[in-house]
Amino acid sequence: IGASDPVLPSGLLEAISEAYVPSSIPSSSDSDTILDTVLVVSKKDPIASPYFAPDDVLSCFPSTRLFSDSTDPLLDDAVDFNTRLRRLGVDSNLRAVHNMPHAYWGLGIVGCFPEAEQVQQECEEFLIETFSHSV
Predict the structure, then answer these.
(1) 5 phi and psi, to 5 degrees?
(2) What does pTM read for this prediction?
(3) Could you give the CA distance from residue 122 to residue 65 in angstroms, rounded to a whole number?
(4) Which is more confidently placed, 52 or 108?
(5) What secondary structure, in 3-state letters, does the chain show?
(6) CA–CA gap between residue 83 and residue 76 (Å, rounded)
(7) How far is CA 70 from the centre of its chain?
(8) Potential cystine with 101: which of 7, 12, 45, 123 (Cβ 3.0-4.6 Å)?
(9) CA separation (Å) from 104 to 10, 37, 66, 68, 129?
(10) R_g (Cα) of the chain, nearest Å
């Protein structure tokens, strides 16, 4: 999959990034389709991505679970982020599966992707365990 990932092909990565975090405010002619106030931040601002947060912020993160495909275009970022969290003492785990597209965990509801179903189950168990200790 990787560069030919049907959900996140490398050629669309920049367009998706721009849609997620615009680099400029849309023109006034678009004002009827957007909020009146638009916050423009750098793609490297921690408010846009915790990947760019300083260590003192990341050290306060709760237990974290990261899931990726072994060929996902963003796998290296997930590995780096997981490594930083663990180095800072955060309970963090990364699991990569094989031959699934980006955001594959959402395919669990379809019923024919066992890897996605297992990840959804793991997420559910993790959240139940995490929130049962916070009460």
Answers:
(1) -55, 120
(2) 0.75
(3) 9
(4) 52
(5) CHHHCCCCCHHHHHHHHHHHCCCCCCCHHHCCCCCCCCCCCCCCCCCCCHHHCCHHHHCCCCCEEEEEECCCCCHHHHHHHHHHHHHCCCCEEEEEECCCCCCHHHHHHCCCCHHHHHHHHHHHHHHHHHHHHHC
(6) 11
(7) 15
(8) 7
(9) 16, 33, 12, 8, 23
(10) 17
